[in-house]
Amino acid sequence: MSEKRKIRIALDAMGGDFAPLNEVQGAKLAYNLKKDAIDLEIILVGDEAKINNAIANTPDFNINYRIVHTTEVVTMEDDASAAIKKKKDSSLAVGVNLHKNGEAEAFCSAGNTGAVMSTGTILLGRINGVSRPTIGSFFPTSKDLPCLVVDVGANVDCKPRFLYEFAVMGSIYYSQIYNIKNPTIGLLNVGEEESKGNVAAYEANELLRNSNLNFIGNVEGRDILLGNSDIVICDGFIGNIVLKFAESVFSFLKIKFKAFADKGILNKLMMGIFQPILKNIFKDFDYQKYGGLPLLGVNGVVIIGHGKSTPVAIQNMILKAIEVVELDVNKKIEIALNS
Amino acid sequence: MSEKRKIRIALDAMGGDFAPLNEVQGAKLAYNLKKDAIDLEIILVGDEAKINNAIANTPDFNINYRIVHTTEVVTMEDDASAAIKKKKDSSLAVGVNLHKNGEAEAFCSAGNTGAVMSTGTILLGRINGVSRPTIGSFFPTSKDLPCLVVDVGANVDCKPRFLYEFAVMGSIYYSQIYNIKNPTIGLLNVGEEESKGNVAAYEANELLRNSNLNFIGNVEGRDILLGNSDIVICDGFIGNIVLKFAESVFSFLKIKFKAFADKGILNKLMMGIFQPILKNIFKDFDYQKYGGLPLLGVNGVVIIGHGKSTPVAIQNMILKAIEVVELDVNKKIEIALNS
Questions:
Q1: Domain identity same for B180 and B239
Q2: What are the chain A neighbours of B280 within 8 Å (beta carbons)?
Q3: Domain harbouring B216, CATH code
């Protein structure tokens, strides 16, 4: 029997809106799922008393863990770039440093996205050749595989070169996760013609055309859900707006369906039958499924979760971290951007 | 009995993908709906033989109309800004000129959006105080009234001043159409804080804050469908991408529901029952309902329809033109931007 690989995940236990309880429960779920395959240790970073209290409220918490005590918490209200200077003993900064110092193979947090990104970038540094680390998000499509949209909020003002680098990083990440050799890449624009759009999009189109990526040209807003390219590149301003718009579609439909159900007993019955089907179709829109988004381009593995993460979402964030550690994405990005 | 108001609508009979048949049939539908309320004349602008052929294929075509013959057609492939120079006898240019010369109170076209916008702006000129004419689009919301997103593709690179003017024009248009005094205005961004987003958004926020518009601050992608502000302001690059993304949601769901139905006879039966409900809920996403979008900011009434317009969509485009003529939106925009 071959020895199991040891993987240590530093988890920001104070990150999400329901921390540390959901973090502790998610750690348990992830551990139980992976304990047979790998030698997993989860490092819970945060207020020791609160974490122990959460553990006491989590039945059957029999996992391989340790607690690293910290005294400060970066909140959603904290300024992203100032967080690292103002709160040196935050669960975020300490957790990233555990990873940096080789005490953990990855770091995960469902906390302030901007602060995780900024702290991760400052402490770990960028991969050689990367101008701006980025965050991509998976969108469901009407085809088999999801569409990876990069960037979804990390960089609001983007030079054409940044967009090109997002494409390189997205391509490597997608090809590793889905085992596809040359995923197709589209550049989000207002029309298919090269001449369309704003200045940055025009110049980025030229960079992508002349690269060895599998670039299919400009794509439009409709091409994301229809799965017309595996990866869609855009700046973080538009990517974030489209992501939040997409997340609101299910809420919108729920309100509409409820109004329909409230119109009569027959309607209510029909909606009762239909609800599970709808839920099933919309599960692909659920951030929980993907658990967390990797911060691509930093010298390390940092996974960012949703602030409202449930225990299952925390579990999936940890699983994502393990997956990225095993795939060794960073080395491939460095080679691609420096060859 | 008071005399009915005479309104003449110049209709680009060669505009849409199914022209001139859908245009002729839509004209008939609109005429029959409005003939008791107003003295309506529809001017069909385009190839006379083709129009007469479409009329011959339209039963009971008993409407008050005339044909203005033209020899050229601006296609979807034509360069928007060059169309007016290259095709002087197009149904588009001749139709806009009929409106300009006082032979029609409004012009409608389901043709090349960019060309309609560019030809309309060049021939009619801008309202005093308007830097860039704009196109807004209504999105359904989970509340009672739709959300007007301005701009949805007319202007891809926007100065903060343009965004402010979009807000003024959108506010007047919305208040007239829905009879609301001070509709709420949100600025599309990646966060609610004033400091968020790109440079243009930051400066536009300041302009809007210091205006007498009912500005509620930055809004995010999710706020559109949830109806958290009556109007959402953004540049045409992002507005167009969000519009096309939204239009694709129904196509995406249809494919997903079909896959569900194909899994078995019981599934098929359930989907059969549910289909009409879904259609009903998604009718608000249907461009046909709104028929056409006004080109706001030009000295005249120009309504732009969807290329794939059905006869009902053409009907609604004509009804929208009549509505805008009756509301006298332009005078109110001029006063607001010059006081």
A1: yes
A2: 260
A3: 3.40.718.10
Do A25 and A77 share a domain, yes or no? yes
Distance CA A225, CA A146 (A): 8
Q: Do B142 and A256 touch (CB under 8 A)?
A: yes
Sequence-separated (6 or more) residues with CB below 8 Å from residue A102: none
B121, B159: one domain: no
**The domain containing residue A252 runs over which residues?**
246-280
Residue B43 pLDDT class (50, 70, 90 cuts) = very high
Say if the Cβ atoms of A157 and B221 lie within 8 Å. Answer: no
Nearest chain B residue to A275 by CA distance is B274
Nearest to B221 among A234, A245, A260 (CB): A245
pLDDT of residue A250: 83
| Predicted confidence band of residue A1 (pLDDT cuts 50, 70, 90) | low
The reply to whether residue B246 touches residue A197, judged by beta carbons under 8 angstroms, is no
Provide the domain count of chain B.
2
B167-213 pLDDT per residue, tens:
999 999 999 999 999 999 999 998 777 767 777 888 999 999 999 99
Contacts of B225 in chain A (CB under 8 A): 245, 248-249, 251-252
Q: Does A72 map to a domain?
A: yes
Q: How far is B61 from chain A (nearest CA, A)?
A: 37
**Same-domain status, B85 and B119:** yes
pLDDT score of A127: 96
DSSP state of A149: E
Phi, psi of A172 (to 5 degrees): -65, -45
Residues A2 and A126 in one domain: yes
Cβ atoms of residues B45 and B10 within 8 Å = yes
Q: Is there a domain that residue A2 lies in?
A: yes
Closest CA to A253 of B244, B269, B258, B274: B274
CB atoms within 10 A of CB B261: 19
Residues B99 and B150 in one domain: no
Candidate ranges A79-88, A189-198, A223-232, A299-308; pick with highest mean pLDDT: A223-232
Cβ pairs A/B, distance under 8 A:
137
**Euclidean distance between CA atoms A116 and A292, whole angstroms:** 12
Residues B245 and B200 in one domain: yes
